[in-house]
Amino acid sequence: MIRKTLSASLLAMFLAQPAFAEEATIGRPIEAASLHEGKLDMVVYYVPVAGDLLEVTATFAPKTGGDPLRFVMGLADGDSVAFSMPGHQDSLYAFSRSGEEVTISTETDTYLRADAAMR
C-alpha cells in the first residue's frame, strides 16, 4: 500500500511540472519566429521603439480556425513575462529579453492532464 501511494505521489509530482514544449530566439528587428505547439500557432517579431524598449508583437492563430489574436508589449532589457491566452489556459507563453535577443517559449500545463487522469 505504501509503495503504491509513494509511486502515485512521485508520478503526480513529475506530471505536475510544466513541460517546455517549444522555444525560439529572435535577435534582430523584424526577424520573425514561429511556435506551433498546443492549440495555437504563433508568429512573433519585434521592432525598436523610443528609449531602450523593444515592441514585441505576437499573433496567435487557432489551429481549428477562428479569428487570430494579437498581443503587443514593450520589453526593456531584462524583462520577462508569462501568460495564457483567453480560452487556452492549458498553454503558457513566456517572453524574455536579454540585450537585443527576445526568447519565446511555450509550456504545456501537464498538471491539468495528470489531475484529470488520476480521477
Short summary:
With 119 residues, the chain is α+β, with helices and mostly antiparallel strands. It has two helices and eight strands, in the order H-E-E-E-E-E-E-E-E-H.
Q: What this model shows, in words?
A:
By secondary structure, the chain is an alpha+beta fold. β3 and β4 form a beta hairpin. It has one domain: Tick-borne Encephalitis virus Glycoprotein, domain 1 (Sandwich), CATH 2.60.98. The strands form two sheets. It has a four-stranded antiparallel sheet, with no helix packed on it. A four-stranded antiparallel sheet has the order 2-3-4-5, with no helix packed on it. Helices cover 20% and strands 51% of the residues. The radius of gyration is 17 Å and the shape is globular. The protein has two helices and eight strands, in the order αββββββββα.
